[in-house]
Amino acid sequence: MNLIDIHAHLETSRFTKDLDQVIERAKKAGIKVIINSGVNPSTNRDILELAKKYPIIKISFGLYPIDALAKEINSGESDDFSRKIEEFDVDEELAWIEKNKDKCVAIGEVGLDYNWPDSIEHKEKQKEVFEKIIKLAIKINKPLIIHSRKAEVDAIELLEKNNAKNVIMHCFSAKKSLIQRCIDNHWFLSVPPIITRLQHFQTLVQMTPIEQLLTETDSPYLSPIAGERNEPVNVTFTIKEISKIKNLTEKEVAEQIWKNAQNLFKF
After folding, report:
1. What's the pLDDT score for residue 115?
2. Is the CA virtual torsion 79, 82, 84, 90 positive or negative?
3. Distance of CA 40 to the CA centre of its chain
4. Where does the pLDDT of residue 28 fall: very low under 50, low under 70, confident under 90, or very high at 90 and above?
5. N or C: which end of the chain has fewer CB within 10 A?
6. Nearest to residue 265, comparing CAs of 91, 57, 54?
7. How many other C-beta atoms can be found within 10 angstroms of the C-beta atom of residue 55?
8. pLDDT digits (tens, 9 = 90+) for 64-102
9. Residue 245 in 3-state DSSP?
10. Residue 2: Cβ within 10 Å count
11. Overall domain count for the chain
């Protein structure tokens, strides 16, 4: 079977000691491609180096919503964010992404995050940046991998407003009506291994045509086993769950998802 993890973060410190072994486990399980997503300028450049070392890795350049507000967050307006984020010029980074567009297969992760901060000003700034990113992705003809935590309606509306077509809703946690709206827009929904213990993703798979499903891990997050680090090999858990829900063989599920990914990412 040809398997794919369309969203991972292997550049994080949680993979520093054993990334070679992580990659080997993925290969042995049949994973042919891991799309590693950046979240800011540093990680966008780090994953370029990862892809040179590990050909299995493809690149998605991203600007995580909170990172895109680094200047505002680090200015002292808010001091309760859980990690230090680097300051950078959004327009400069978007220009760099456009210059390096041939090195990536997608733009992401990008989007909106209303979990924190929750001020109207920050939300409006996020939307302003997100719209710039959507327009860039359309201009350079790259799929968008969308983060939309607690901001699903606004994310959908901005994507619809800009007539975005090649869209992947990553770890989409919205209610059924919004899942259906994504389906009706012919977007893709990517399913993490945490489907083994979250009914929400089981329902999402029930609702979504298999032609619009993709598999992701969001490694090192969203593990199928609580408390354990997630890694790309765990795509196999997602394939098994989808096969049960769709009443298909694992091979049939894997083949269709691989086909979906090939058509979307053009590799």
Report:
1. 84
2. negative
3. 14
4. very high
5. C
6. 57
7. 9
8. 887 766 655 554 444 444 446 778 899 999 999 999 999
9. helix
10. 15
11. 1
Rg (Cα) of the chain, in Å, rounded? 17
Q: What is residue 146's predicted lDDT score, i.e. its pLDDT?
A: 98
Task: Give the residue numbers spanning the domain of 98.
Answer: 3-265
CATH at 9: 3.20.20.140
Q: In what order do the strands lie in the sheet with 3-8?
A: 3-8, 31-37, 57-61, 106-113, 144-149, 167-170, 188-191, 213-215
In degrees, rounded to 5, the angle at the alpha carbon of residue 143 between the alpha carbons of residues 137 and 147 is: 90
DSSP labels for 83-105?
S------HHHHHHHHHHTGGG-S
163-216 confidence digits (pLDDT tens): 999 999 999 999 999 999 999 999 999 999 999 999 999 999 999 999 999 999
| pLDDT given for residue 144 in this prediction | 98
CA atoms in the 13 A half-sphere facing the CB of 77: 14
Show the tokens assigned to 106: 């997608």
pLDDT for the residue numbered 85: 73
Predicted pLDDT at 80: 42
pTM metric for this prediction: 0.94
DSSP helix/strand/coil, 26: helix
Structure-token pair, residue 47: 């994953």
